[in-house]
């Protein structure tokens, strides 16, 4: 992991108020929480379809990103910003919802497949690589026979609000840990 150079931290989601509180948008919610923690604000980027916030975490330059494209087109804004800020794939962290992890749990990894996730698929395809960090934010499996595609586009239930706050808080902490402590130590914290 390089000691210099900016980090691109991307929270996946769909744009607009209709999707703001859905399970699919938990990555974008973590970006909002990070921006708020640092008492900063997101602004529209002039070269990419994204809102960004340039900040520092543990002394490192960090660009917090919420793509304004739909999930399945996330790769375009990520590639444009990586080029603009001269960020290599190993300095990119993508926060995304994960059905195969229980609600409020987190897993951290480098690289890997997209597991049917359209946002990850778009980034891999556009960047020509999957060698970036992923913070997988657990949203759990849909109940009964509910279609996963419908489930991820539903809002979290009021009974889940505490778990969602924990997930956002841990997502913020995991970003900080990855940047300041590296992959192995962060995995030891979250993947057990």
What's the quick description here?
The chain has helices at residues 26-37, 75-84, 118-127, 148-151, 161-181, 183-190; strands spanning 7-11, 43-44, 50-57, 60-67, 92-98, 106-110, 133-138.
Largest sheet: 7 strands, mixed
Radius of gyration: 15 Å
Q: Kindly estimate the percentage of residues that lie in beta strands according to DSSP.
A: 15-25%
Determine the CATH topology: Rossmann fold
- What's the structural domain tally? 1
Classify the secondary structure makeup into a structural class: alpha/beta
Compute the number of helices.
6
Mean pLDDT figure: 95
**What is the H/E string?**
EHEEEHEEHEHHH
Please give the CATH architecture.
3-Layer(aba) Sandwich
Shape: globular
- So, the CATH homologous superfamily? Peptidyl-tRNA hydrolase
Within the largest sheet, what's the order of strands?
2-3-4-1-5-7-6
Report the helical percentage: 25-40%
Distance between the termini: 22 Å
Output the CATH class name: Alpha Beta
Number of DSSP-assigned strands: 7
**Uncertain regions: pLDDT < 50 for 5+ in a row?**
none
Q: Can you walk through the features of this model?
A:
The chain has 192 residues and is of the alpha/beta class. The protein has one domain (7-190): Peptidyl-tRNA hydrolase (Rossmann fold, 3-Layer(aba) Sandwich), CATH 3.40.50.1470. Helix content is 34%, strand content 21%. The chain has helices at 26-37, 75-84, 118-127, 148-151, 161-181, 183-190, and strands at 7-11, 43-44, 50-57, 60-67, 92-98, 106-110, 133-138. A seven-stranded mixed beta sheet has the order 2-3-4-1-5-7-6, sandwiched between helices. Helix 1 packs across helix 5 (161-181).
């Amino acid at each position: 992991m390089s000691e210099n150079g900016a980090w691109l931290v991307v929270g996946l989601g769909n744009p607009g108020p209709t999707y703001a509180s859905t399970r699919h948008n938990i990555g974008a919610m973590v970006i909002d929480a990070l921006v708020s923690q640092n008492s900063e604000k997101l602004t529209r980027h002039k070269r990419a379809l994204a809102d960004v916030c340039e900040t520092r975490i543990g002394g490192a330059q960090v660009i917090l990103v919420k793509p304004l494209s739909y999930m399945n087109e996330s790769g375009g804004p990520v590639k444009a910003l990586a080029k603009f800020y001269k960020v290599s794939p190993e300095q990119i962290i993508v926060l995304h919802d994960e059905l195969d992890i229980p609600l409020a749990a987190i897993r951290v990894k480098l690289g890997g497949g997209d597991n049917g996730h359209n946002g990850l698929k778009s980034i891999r395809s556009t960047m020509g690589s999957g060698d970036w960090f992923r913070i997988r934010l657990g949203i759990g499996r849909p109940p009964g026979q509910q279609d996963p595609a419908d489930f991820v586009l539903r809002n979290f239930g009021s009974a889940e609000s505490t778990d969602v706050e924990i997930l956002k808080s841990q997502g913020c902490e995991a970003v900080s840990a990855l940047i300041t402590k590296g992959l192995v130590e962060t995995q030891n914290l979250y993947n057990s």
